[in-house]
Design goal:
2 domains, 6-stranded mixed β-sheet, two-stranded antiparallel ribbon
């Protein structure tokens, strides 16, 4: 099985973040897009890695710098979460499009770690810092930190990127914890099983793939912290996977990924949780989880309760 690419085919409820793309769109945009064809190139050294950036057409100095600043912010956030950039080298191909669109994006590992992103030449510093798809580069970089898995487990690839991206950006100082918890409260219900659901492995809908996968990651994060008295979290499992070489340019399969993560934290969480959710169509009691974590939404504003049973876990999830 070839190493899978991770195509951005989602529309996230994290308002105003919306993005739609298809495999056919990618075929049209990137049929010609390889690092060697770039007319303008740059190189960044971040987190122990070299990022080789290639633009497929000539750019203005302003556009070039805006793009490099955006890539730098994303790489810094991922480095903060993983304590190093997940791979030693990545090629980043920028397709310069018209307008102000950000995306679509794709990460792949077939010829080494590679990220393709389309970016409108009319983007501004503000739109890349605060715009609807400003999360896209960080999302694609998180994909680099996970080995290719079988097609039926695509939910772990997209769910992990959906979950880790905003947390990494909180830890890097780009987002507030209140904003991300509010987005989770609004978005996570889309990952709940719908009628006819047959579990994460057998229900490849958009909601189950992105938000169902993110829900798995949240439950794993909370359970790891419970079992280790908050000494470890999901990031420790993920760092262990990266340390063993389980990055996008490898083919491990989900079993090896989860077993490696559990070994890194020293407690069984990922494998048992997968065994429970892979064929399970029962909903998660999110209301109870929010209450335990001390997260309440009032008039689209999140209020934290520090007397909640898992308030310390809530704080640790967002803390560097």
């Amino acid at each position: 099985m070839p190493v899978a690419s991770r195509d951005l085919v989602k529309a996230r409820a994290w308002s105003p973040r919306l993005a739609f793309a298809s495999t056919l769109v990618w075929a049209a945009i990137f049929a010609f897009s390889t690092p060697s064809l770039g007319q303008d190139k740059a190189e960044l050294d971040i987190g122990g890695a070299t990022l080789s950036i290639s633009f497929d057409s000539a750019t203005t100095p302003e556009f070039r710098q805006l793009t490099l600043d955006w890539i730098t912010r994303a790489a810094n956030a991922v480095t903060v979460y993983y304590t190093r950039f997940p791979v030693r080298h990545v090629d980043i191909s920028i397709h310069v499009a018209s307008g102000r669109a950000v995306g679509p994006g794709r990460a792949s590992g077939e010829r080494g770690p590679h990220i393709h992103v389309a970016l409108g030449s009319g983007v501004t510093a503000r739109s890349l810092a605060e715009g609807g798809n400003n999360w896209l580069m960080t999302h694609e970089m998180v994909h680099l930190a996970l080995s290719s898995v079988e097609e039926e487990h695509h939910w772990i690839e997209e769910g992990l990127a959906t979950y880790v991206e905003p947390i990494a950006r909180v830890r890097a100082g780009e987002l507030s914890a209140q904003q991300v918890w509010r987005d989770m409260i609004e978005g996570m219900p889309q990952g709940e099983p719908a009628p006819g659901d047959r579990g994460l492995d057998h229900t490849p809908t958009w909601g189950r793939t992105y938000w169902g996968g993110a829900m798995f990651c949240l439950l794993a994060d909370v359970e790891i912290r419970r079992k280790t008295n908050n000494r470890m979290g999901l990031e420790n499992a993920l760092r262990g996977i990266v340390a063993e070489g389980g990055t996008i340019d490898t083919e491990w399969g989900l079993s090896k990924v989860l077993e490696t993560g559990d070994r890194a934290i020293g407690v069984p969480v990922l494998v048992p949780l997968y065994d429970k959710m892979k064929d399970d169509s029962n909903p998660v009691n999110l209301e109870s989880l929010w209450k335990e974590l001390g997260v309440e939404e009032k008039d689209r504003t999140v209020v934290f309760r520090d007397d909640a049973p898992l308030a310390a876990v809530r704080k640790a999830i967002m803390s560097p």
